[in-house]
Structure prediction request, 476 residues.
Amino acid sequence: MSGQRIDRQTARLAGLILLAVLLGGCVNATVDEMTYNEPVAGIGESSVVILGRRHKPDYDTEFDFIECIGDHIHSGDPSIEVINEIAFINQFYPWFEPRTAPLQPQTIDRLLQLPPVAARFDEMKLEYMIWIDGNTENTESTGSMSCGIGPGVAGCFGFGTWGTESEYEATIWDFTDKVEVGRVSAQTSGQNYMPAVVVPIPIIAPVQGTACDSLGDQLLEYLSAFH
Amino acid sequence: MLCFTLLAAGCSTKQVVVEGNFPKPLLDPLPITLGVIYPSAFAEHEFFDEAKGRAESDWLVKTGEAQVEFWDILFDGMFDEVVHIRDWETVQRRAAEIDGVLIPAIGDLQYTIPTHTNVKIYEIWMRYEFRLVDIAAIHQQEDGALSFNPDERLAAWPITAYGKTPTAFLQTDEEAVNLAAVVALRDAGAHFVTSFGATPDVAVWLDGIARRQQDAARSSNEQAGDPQPVVDSVEASPTEGEPDSGEAL
Prediction:
Protein backbone atom coordinates (compact mmCIF):
# COMPACT_ATOMS: atom_id res chain seq x y z
CA MET A 1 0.00 0.00 0.00
CA SER A 2 2.73 2.39 1.07
CA GLY A 3 4.88 1.37 -1.93
CA GLN A 4 1.97 2.18 -4.30
CA ARG A 5 1.63 5.68 -2.76
CA ILE A 6 5.35 6.34 -3.25
CA ASP A 7 5.09 5.12 -6.86
CA ARG A 8 2.17 7.49 -7.48
CA GLN A 9 4.06 10.42 -5.91
CA THR A 10 7.15 9.68 -7.96
CA ALA A 11 5.07 9.44 -11.15
CA ARG A 12 3.41 12.78 -10.37
CA LEU A 13 6.79 14.41 -9.77
CA ALA A 14 8.17 12.88 -12.96
CA GLY A 15 5.21 14.38 -14.83
CA LEU A 16 5.91 17.79 -13.31
CA ILE A 17 9.58 17.53 -14.25
CA LEU A 18 8.65 16.63 -17.82
CA LEU A 19 6.25 19.58 -17.96
CA ALA A 20 8.95 21.84 -16.53
CA VAL A 21 11.51 20.67 -19.08
CA LEU A 22 9.00 21.29 -21.87
CA LEU A 23 8.07 24.73 -20.58
CA GLY A 24 11.44 25.70 -19.13
CA GLY A 25 13.32 28.30 -21.12
CA CYS A 26 10.12 29.69 -22.62
CA VAL A 27 10.27 33.48 -22.50
CA ASN A 28 7.69 35.91 -23.82
CA ALA A 29 9.19 39.08 -25.27
CA THR A 30 7.57 42.28 -26.51
CA VAL A 31 9.73 44.90 -28.21
CA ASP A 32 8.65 48.42 -29.19
CA GLU A 33 10.74 50.77 -31.25
CA MET A 34 10.43 54.40 -32.28
CA THR A 35 13.55 55.97 -33.78
CA TYR A 36 14.41 58.97 -35.97
CA ASN A 37 17.41 60.21 -37.95
CA GLU A 38 19.04 56.82 -38.27
CA PRO A 39 22.75 57.12 -39.19
CA VAL A 40 22.42 55.39 -42.56
CA ALA A 41 26.18 55.16 -43.08
CA GLY A 42 26.78 54.03 -39.49
CA ILE A 43 28.61 56.05 -36.86
CA GLY A 44 32.10 55.84 -38.43
CA GLU A 45 34.92 56.43 -35.96
CA SER A 46 32.66 57.96 -33.34
CA SER A 47 31.79 56.15 -30.15
CA VAL A 48 28.70 55.25 -28.16
CA VAL A 49 28.19 55.06 -24.43
CA ILE A 50 25.42 53.06 -22.78
CA LEU A 51 24.47 54.15 -19.27
CA GLY A 52 22.00 52.79 -16.71
CA ARG A 53 19.57 54.98 -14.79
CA ARG A 54 20.03 54.67 -11.03
CA HIS A 55 18.17 57.60 -9.52
CA LYS A 56 14.88 55.82 -8.76
CA PRO A 57 14.37 54.87 -5.11
CA ASP A 58 13.24 51.26 -5.58
CA TYR A 59 15.59 49.85 -8.21
CA ASP A 60 18.83 50.33 -10.11
CA THR A 61 19.39 49.32 -13.70
CA GLU A 62 21.90 46.49 -13.41
CA PHE A 63 25.54 47.15 -14.44
CA ASP A 64 25.81 43.65 -15.95
CA PHE A 65 22.75 44.30 -18.13
CA ILE A 66 24.39 47.44 -19.55
CA GLU A 67 27.57 45.45 -20.17
CA CYS A 68 25.52 42.73 -21.89
CA ILE A 69 23.96 45.23 -24.32
CA GLY A 70 27.35 46.82 -25.04
CA ASP A 71 28.86 43.40 -25.76
CA HIS A 72 25.89 42.50 -27.97
CA ILE A 73 26.30 45.66 -30.06
CA HIS A 74 30.08 45.37 -30.32
CA SER A 75 29.95 41.68 -31.27
CA GLY A 76 27.27 42.44 -33.90
CA ASP A 77 29.36 45.22 -35.46
CA PRO A 78 32.97 45.39 -34.17
CA SER A 79 33.42 48.79 -35.86
CA ILE A 80 31.14 50.36 -33.23
CA GLU A 81 33.16 51.46 -30.22
CA VAL A 82 31.09 51.10 -27.06
CA ILE A 83 32.65 52.88 -24.07
CA ASN A 84 32.64 50.92 -20.81
CA GLU A 85 30.00 52.35 -18.49
CA ILE A 86 31.96 52.30 -15.22
CA ALA A 87 35.06 53.77 -16.87
CA PHE A 88 32.92 56.54 -18.39
CA ILE A 89 31.23 57.40 -15.07
CA ASN A 90 34.60 57.49 -13.32
CA GLN A 91 36.20 59.64 -16.00
CA PHE A 92 33.37 62.16 -15.73
CA TYR A 93 32.98 62.08 -11.94
CA PRO A 94 30.90 63.74 -10.46
CA TRP A 95 28.74 64.65 -13.47
CA PHE A 96 27.11 61.26 -14.15
CA GLU A 97 26.28 60.19 -10.60
CA PRO A 98 22.59 59.40 -9.81
CA ARG A 99 22.27 62.90 -8.29
CA THR A 100 23.87 64.81 -11.17
CA ALA A 101 23.29 62.77 -14.35
CA PRO A 102 21.43 64.74 -17.04
CA LEU A 103 17.81 63.68 -17.43
CA GLN A 104 17.19 65.61 -20.66
CA PRO A 105 19.52 65.86 -23.68
CA GLN A 106 19.30 69.66 -23.60
CA THR A 107 21.03 69.76 -20.20
CA ILE A 108 24.23 68.38 -21.72
CA ASP A 109 24.93 71.92 -22.98
CA ARG A 110 25.37 73.01 -19.37
CA LEU A 111 27.92 70.26 -18.80
CA LEU A 112 29.78 71.31 -21.94
CA GLN A 113 30.30 74.77 -20.46
CA LEU A 114 32.80 73.16 -18.08
CA PRO A 115 36.06 73.21 -20.08
CA PRO A 116 37.51 69.92 -18.74
CA VAL A 117 34.22 68.12 -19.41
CA ALA A 118 33.98 69.51 -22.94
CA ALA A 119 37.61 68.55 -23.62
CA ARG A 120 37.05 64.98 -22.47
CA PHE A 121 33.93 64.61 -24.62
CA ASP A 122 35.95 65.86 -27.60
CA GLU A 123 38.63 63.24 -26.95
CA MET A 124 36.00 60.51 -26.89
CA LYS A 125 34.32 61.55 -30.16
CA LEU A 126 31.01 60.59 -28.59
CA GLU A 127 28.14 60.42 -31.08
CA TYR A 128 25.35 58.72 -29.13
CA MET A 129 24.53 58.46 -25.45
CA ILE A 130 22.04 55.68 -24.72
CA TRP A 131 20.25 55.59 -21.37
CA ILE A 132 18.72 52.31 -20.19
CA ASP A 133 16.04 52.43 -17.52
CA GLY A 134 14.48 49.32 -16.00
CA ASN A 135 15.30 46.14 -14.16
CA THR A 136 14.58 42.43 -13.77
CA GLU A 137 12.55 41.11 -10.86
CA ASN A 138 11.32 37.78 -9.61
CA THR A 139 7.56 37.62 -9.16
CA GLU A 140 5.21 35.15 -7.50
CA SER A 141 6.56 31.78 -6.39
CA THR A 142 4.75 28.56 -5.51
CA GLY A 143 5.57 24.98 -4.60
CA SER A 144 7.41 23.42 -1.74
CA MET A 145 10.60 21.54 -1.24
CA SER A 146 12.04 19.78 1.77
CA CYS A 147 15.62 18.84 2.26
CA GLY A 148 17.10 16.46 4.81
CA ILE A 149 20.50 15.44 6.02
CA GLY A 150 21.50 12.27 7.81
CA PRO A 151 24.63 10.23 8.45
CA GLY A 152 26.06 9.61 5.01
CA VAL A 153 22.97 10.75 3.13
CA ALA A 154 21.41 14.06 2.10
CA GLY A 155 18.79 15.08 -0.41
CA CYS A 156 15.78 17.19 -1.34
CA PHE A 157 12.32 16.30 -2.59
CA GLY A 158 9.69 18.63 -3.99
CA PHE A 159 8.95 21.16 -6.69
CA GLY A 160 9.14 24.94 -6.82
CA THR A 161 8.33 27.49 -9.48
CA TRP A 162 8.62 31.27 -9.75
CA GLY A 163 8.26 33.92 -12.41
CA THR A 164 10.75 36.52 -13.65
CA GLU A 165 9.90 39.76 -15.43
CA SER A 166 12.13 42.27 -17.16
CA GLU A 167 11.15 45.71 -18.32
CA TYR A 168 13.70 48.03 -19.93
CA GLU A 169 13.54 51.17 -22.03
CA ALA A 170 16.48 52.55 -23.99
CA THR A 171 16.49 56.26 -24.82
CA ILE A 172 18.92 57.32 -27.55
CA TRP A 173 20.41 60.83 -27.42
CA ASP A 174 22.18 62.30 -30.42
CA PHE A 175 25.16 63.91 -28.77
CA THR A 176 25.94 66.29 -31.64
CA ASP A 177 22.49 67.86 -31.85
CA LYS A 178 21.59 67.27 -28.16
CA VAL A 179 18.24 65.76 -29.04
CA GLU A 180 16.49 62.52 -28.35
CA VAL A 181 16.39 60.43 -31.52
CA GLY A 182 14.64 57.29 -30.40
CA ARG A 183 13.25 54.96 -27.79
CA VAL A 184 13.32 51.19 -27.73
CA SER A 185 11.64 49.12 -25.05
CA ALA A 186 11.63 45.44 -24.24
CA GLN A 187 9.34 43.55 -21.87
CA THR A 188 10.09 39.91 -21.24
CA SER A 189 8.73 37.36 -18.81
CA GLY A 190 9.24 33.70 -18.12
CA GLN A 191 8.66 30.93 -15.62
CA ASN A 192 11.43 29.14 -13.74
CA TYR A 193 11.16 25.62 -12.29
CA MET A 194 13.07 23.75 -9.63
CA PRO A 195 12.18 20.05 -9.41
CA ALA A 196 14.07 18.07 -6.80
CA VAL A 197 14.48 14.33 -6.51
CA VAL A 198 17.50 14.03 -4.22
CA VAL A 199 19.26 16.82 -6.16
CA PRO A 200 17.41 20.08 -7.03
CA ILE A 201 17.62 20.86 -10.75
CA PRO A 202 16.97 24.55 -11.52
CA ILE A 203 15.46 25.21 -14.95
CA ILE A 204 15.88 28.95 -15.36
CA ALA A 205 14.17 30.97 -18.08
CA PRO A 206 16.68 33.41 -19.65
CA VAL A 207 14.43 36.43 -19.13
CA GLN A 208 17.10 39.10 -18.69
CA GLY A 209 19.25 37.59 -21.43
CA THR A 210 16.32 37.73 -23.86
CA ALA A 211 15.68 41.37 -22.92
CA CYS A 212 19.38 42.09 -23.55
CA ASP A 213 19.28 40.38 -26.96
CA SER A 214 16.03 42.12 -27.93
CA LEU A 215 17.21 45.62 -26.98
CA GLY A 216 20.71 44.93 -28.32
CA ASP A 217 19.34 43.84 -31.72
CA GLN A 218 17.21 46.98 -32.05
CA LEU A 219 20.06 49.29 -31.02
CA LEU A 220 22.44 47.49 -33.35
CA GLU A 221 19.99 47.93 -36.20
CA TYR A 222 19.85 51.65 -35.44
CA LEU A 223 23.60 52.24 -35.05
CA SER A 224 25.13 49.90 -37.58
CA ALA A 225 25.37 50.38 -41.32
CA PHE A 226 25.46 46.61 -41.80
CA HIS A 227 22.21 45.63 -40.07
CA MET B 1 28.36 21.31 17.68
CA LEU B 2 26.33 22.26 14.58
CA CYS B 3 23.63 23.82 16.79
CA PHE B 4 26.29 25.77 18.70
CA THR B 5 27.80 27.02 15.44
CA LEU B 6 24.39 28.14 14.15
CA LEU B 7 23.60 29.92 17.44
CA ALA B 8 26.98 31.64 17.43
CA ALA B 9 26.51 32.71 13.81
CA GLY B 10 23.23 34.38 14.73
CA CYS B 11 24.90 36.45 17.45
CA SER B 12 28.10 37.39 15.61
CA THR B 13 29.12 40.92 14.62
CA LYS B 14 29.25 41.70 10.94
CA GLN B 15 32.12 44.07 10.30
CA VAL B 16 32.73 46.19 7.22
CA VAL B 17 35.84 48.30 6.68
CA VAL B 18 34.70 50.43 3.76
CA GLU B 19 37.03 50.20 0.76
CA GLY B 20 36.71 51.51 -2.77
CA ASN B 21 38.45 53.10 -5.72
CA PHE B 22 37.54 56.76 -5.88
CA PRO B 23 37.95 58.80 -9.06
CA LYS B 24 39.52 62.23 -9.32
CA PRO B 25 36.86 64.86 -10.03
CA LEU B 26 36.73 66.36 -13.52
CA LEU B 27 36.95 70.04 -12.57
CA ASP B 28 39.07 73.11 -13.09
CA PRO B 29 40.51 73.59 -9.61
CA LEU B 30 39.59 76.79 -7.81
CA PRO B 31 42.65 79.05 -7.29
CA ILE B 32 42.46 78.63 -3.54
CA THR B 33 44.83 77.24 -0.94
CA LEU B 34 42.59 75.30 1.39
CA GLY B 35 43.57 74.02 4.81
CA VAL B 36 41.85 70.79 5.85
CA ILE B 37 41.51 69.37 9.32
CA TYR B 38 40.09 65.87 9.71
CA PRO B 39 39.06 65.57 13.36
CA SER B 40 39.78 62.14 14.86
CA ALA B 41 36.03 61.41 15.09
CA PHE B 42 35.94 61.83 11.31
CA ALA B 43 39.21 60.10 10.37
CA GLU B 44 38.40 57.14 12.60
CA HIS B 45 34.66 57.19 12.07
CA GLU B 46 32.82 53.96 12.71
CA PHE B 47 29.21 53.08 13.17
CA PHE B 48 27.97 50.33 15.48
CA ASP B 49 24.44 48.97 15.51
CA GLU B 50 23.45 46.40 18.07
CA ALA B 51 21.24 43.49 16.99
CA LYS B 52 17.58 43.93 17.89
CA GLY B 53 16.85 40.21 18.10
CA ARG B 54 18.47 36.77 18.11
CA ALA B 55 17.99 36.38 14.37
CA GLU B 56 19.94 39.56 13.64
CA SER B 57 23.64 40.38 13.87
CA ASP B 58 25.47 43.35 15.31
CA TRP B 59 26.90 45.60 12.63
CA LEU B 60 30.16 47.54 12.77
CA VAL B 61 30.79 49.76 9.74
CA LYS B 62 34.18 51.52 9.70
CA THR B 63 34.15 54.40 7.22
CA GLY B 64 37.00 56.59 8.58
CA GLU B 65 39.83 55.47 6.27
CA ALA B 66 37.61 55.59 3.20
CA GLN B 67 36.32 59.04 4.20
CA VAL B 68 39.85 60.47 4.38
CA GLU B 69 40.92 58.78 1.13
CA PHE B 70 37.81 59.97 -0.72
CA TRP B 71 37.79 63.59 0.50
CA ASP B 72 41.56 63.91 -0.08
CA ILE B 73 41.06 62.98 -3.75
CA LEU B 74 38.06 65.29 -4.09
CA PHE B 75 39.70 68.33 -2.44
CA ASP B 76 42.92 67.80 -4.43
CA GLY B 77 40.91 67.97 -7.63
CA MET B 78 38.72 70.86 -6.54
CA PHE B 79 41.28 73.30 -5.10
CA ASP B 80 44.66 74.50 -6.36
CA GLU B 81 46.43 73.49 -3.18
CA VAL B 82 45.33 71.54 -0.13
CA VAL B 83 47.26 71.79 3.14
CA HIS B 84 46.58 69.10 5.72
CA ILE B 85 46.71 70.75 9.12
CA ARG B 86 47.72 68.22 11.74
CA ASP B 87 49.69 70.38 14.17
CA TRP B 88 50.26 73.93 15.36
CA GLU B 89 53.57 74.15 13.53
CA THR B 90 51.73 73.79 10.17
CA VAL B 91 49.28 76.52 11.21
CA GLN B 92 52.11 78.94 11.98
CA ARG B 93 54.22 78.07 8.96
CA ARG B 94 51.45 78.14 6.32
CA ALA B 95 49.02 80.71 7.83
CA ALA B 96 49.86 83.44 5.33
CA GLU B 97 49.01 81.38 2.26
CA ILE B 98 45.91 79.47 3.53
CA ASP B 99 42.65 81.10 2.37
CA GLY B 100 40.43 79.10 4.70
CA VAL B 101 40.27 75.88 6.70
CA LEU B 102 37.63 73.24 6.04
CA ILE B 103 36.62 70.92 8.88
CA PRO B 104 34.29 68.06 7.94
CA ALA B 105 32.30 66.04 10.48
CA ILE B 106 29.82 63.19 10.18
CA GLY B 107 26.57 64.15 11.89
CA ASP B 108 24.66 60.95 11.33
CA LEU B 109 24.86 57.63 9.50
CA GLN B 110 21.96 55.26 9.00
CA TYR B 111 21.76 51.98 7.13
CA THR B 112 19.18 49.41 6.15
CA ILE B 113 19.60 45.86 4.92
CA PRO B 114 16.95 43.56 3.41
CA THR B 115 16.53 41.76 6.76
CA HIS B 116 15.29 45.05 8.27
CA THR B 117 13.00 46.20 5.46
CA ASN B 118 12.05 43.16 3.33
CA VAL B 119 13.12 45.27 0.35
CA LYS B 120 15.95 43.83 -1.73
CA ILE B 121 18.12 46.92 -1.36
CA TYR B 122 20.98 47.82 0.95
CA GLU B 123 21.05 51.52 1.79
CA ILE B 124 23.37 53.96 3.57
CA TRP B 125 22.48 57.53 4.39
CA MET B 126 24.93 60.05 5.80
CA ARG B 127 24.73 63.62 6.97
CA TYR B 128 27.91 65.69 7.04
CA GLU B 129 28.50 69.00 8.76
CA PHE B 130 31.09 71.11 6.99
CA ARG B 131 32.62 74.12 8.72
CA LEU B 132 34.82 76.68 7.04
CA VAL B 133 36.95 78.85 9.32
CA ASP B 134 39.67 81.42 8.91
CA ILE B 135 43.15 80.18 9.78
CA ALA B 136 43.21 82.80 12.56
CA ALA B 137 40.37 80.97 14.29
CA ILE B 138 42.54 77.88 14.82
CA HIS B 139 44.12 77.79 18.27
CA GLN B 140 46.38 75.48 20.15
CA GLN B 141 45.13 74.01 23.40
CA GLU B 142 47.32 73.44 26.44
CA ASP B 143 47.72 69.75 25.55
CA GLY B 144 48.93 70.71 22.05
CA ALA B 145 45.72 69.72 20.28
CA LEU B 146 44.14 72.13 17.79
CA SER B 147 40.77 73.71 18.32
CA PHE B 148 38.73 76.52 16.86
CA ASN B 149 36.14 78.93 18.12
CA PRO B 150 32.78 78.00 16.52
CA ASP B 151 31.74 81.68 16.64
CA GLU B 152 34.61 82.60 14.33
CA ARG B 153 33.52 80.37 11.47
CA LEU B 154 33.11 81.72 7.95
CA ALA B 155 30.47 79.20 6.92
CA ALA B 156 28.75 76.03 8.13
CA TRP B 157 26.52 73.88 6.02
CA PRO B 158 25.18 70.31 5.94
CA ILE B 159 25.61 67.83 3.11
CA THR B 160 23.48 64.70 2.86
CA ALA B 161 24.47 61.63 0.90
CA TYR B 162 22.68 58.45 -0.05
CA GLY B 163 23.90 55.19 -1.49
CA LYS B 164 22.05 52.02 -2.35
CA THR B 165 22.85 48.72 -3.94
CA PRO B 166 20.45 45.92 -4.84
CA THR B 167 20.85 42.35 -3.68
CA ALA B 168 22.92 40.22 -6.04
CA PHE B 169 23.60 36.52 -6.45
CA LEU B 170 26.51 35.30 -4.29
CA GLN B 171 26.99 38.74 -2.71
CA THR B 172 27.39 38.82 1.07
CA ASP B 173 25.70 41.40 3.31
CA GLU B 174 29.12 42.89 4.05
CA GLU B 175 30.00 43.32 0.38
CA ALA B 176 26.64 44.94 -0.33
CA VAL B 177 26.93 47.38 2.61
CA ASN B 178 30.46 48.28 1.45
CA LEU B 179 29.16 48.99 -2.06
CA ALA B 180 26.30 51.11 -0.69
CA ALA B 181 28.81 53.08 1.43
CA VAL B 182 31.03 53.70 -1.61
CA VAL B 183 28.00 54.94 -3.59
CA ALA B 184 27.07 57.20 -0.64
CA LEU B 185 30.58 58.65 -0.51
CA ARG B 186 30.51 59.39 -4.23
CA ASP B 187 27.11 60.99 -3.79
CA ALA B 188 28.47 63.13 -0.95
CA GLY B 189 31.24 64.33 -3.26
CA ALA B 190 28.78 65.13 -6.05
CA HIS B 191 26.58 67.03 -3.60
CA PHE B 192 29.58 68.93 -2.21
CA VAL B 193 30.86 69.94 -5.65
CA THR B 194 27.48 71.14 -6.92
CA SER B 195 26.51 73.02 -3.77
CA PHE B 196 29.83 74.48 -2.61
CA GLY B 197 29.64 77.81 -4.41
CA ALA B 198 25.88 78.01 -3.92
CA THR B 199 26.14 78.09 -0.14
CA PRO B 200 25.62 81.81 0.66
CA ASP B 201 28.43 82.19 3.20
CA VAL B 202 30.84 80.25 1.00
CA ALA B 203 29.91 82.47 -1.97
CA VAL B 204 30.76 85.56 0.12
CA TRP B 205 34.09 83.98 1.09
CA LEU B 206 34.88 83.14 -2.56
CA ASP B 207 34.00 86.71 -3.62
CA GLY B 208 36.35 88.08 -0.95
CA ILE B 209 39.22 85.89 -2.21
CA ALA B 210 38.51 86.92 -5.80
CA ARG B 211 38.62 90.60 -4.81
CA ARG B 212 41.87 90.16 -2.89
CA GLN B 213 43.49 88.34 -5.80
CA GLN B 214 42.23 91.02 -8.21
CA ASP B 215 43.62 93.83 -6.03
CA ALA B 216 46.95 92.06 -5.66
CA ALA B 217 47.19 91.56 -9.43
CA ARG B 218 46.26 95.19 -10.09
CA SER B 219 48.82 96.56 -7.66
CA SER B 220 51.55 94.33 -9.06
CA ASN B 221 50.63 95.53 -12.58
CA GLU B 222 50.78 99.15 -11.44
CA GLN B 223 54.21 98.59 -9.90
CA ALA B 224 55.36 97.08 -13.17
CA GLY B 225 53.96 100.10 -15.03
CA ASP B 226 51.68 97.97 -17.16
CA PRO B 227 48.05 99.10 -16.83
CA GLN B 228 46.50 95.95 -18.33
CA PRO B 229 42.95 95.00 -17.24
CA VAL B 230 42.88 92.14 -14.77
CA VAL B 231 40.65 89.10 -15.28
CA ASP B 232 38.81 87.73 -12.25
CA SER B 233 40.48 84.57 -11.14
CA VAL B 234 37.79 83.26 -8.76
CA GLU B 235 34.07 83.50 -9.21
CA ALA B 236 31.41 82.17 -6.92
CA SER B 237 28.85 79.87 -8.53
CA PRO B 238 25.43 80.79 -7.22
CA THR B 239 23.15 78.06 -8.57
CA GLU B 240 22.99 74.64 -6.96
CA GLY B 241 23.38 71.66 -9.23
CA GLU B 242 24.34 73.68 -12.26
CA PRO B 243 27.85 73.04 -13.45
CA ASP B 244 27.88 76.18 -15.60
CA SER B 245 27.43 78.48 -12.65
CA GLY B 246 31.02 79.40 -11.95
CA GLU B 247 34.54 78.73 -13.02
CA ALA B 248 34.79 75.21 -11.81
CA LEU B 249 31.58 74.26 -10.04
Q: What stands out?
A: Chain A has a mean pLDDT of 89. The CA atoms of residues 105 and 179 of chain A lie 6 Å apart. The first strand of chain A starts at residue 27 and ends at 35. DSSP finds six helices and six strands in chain A.
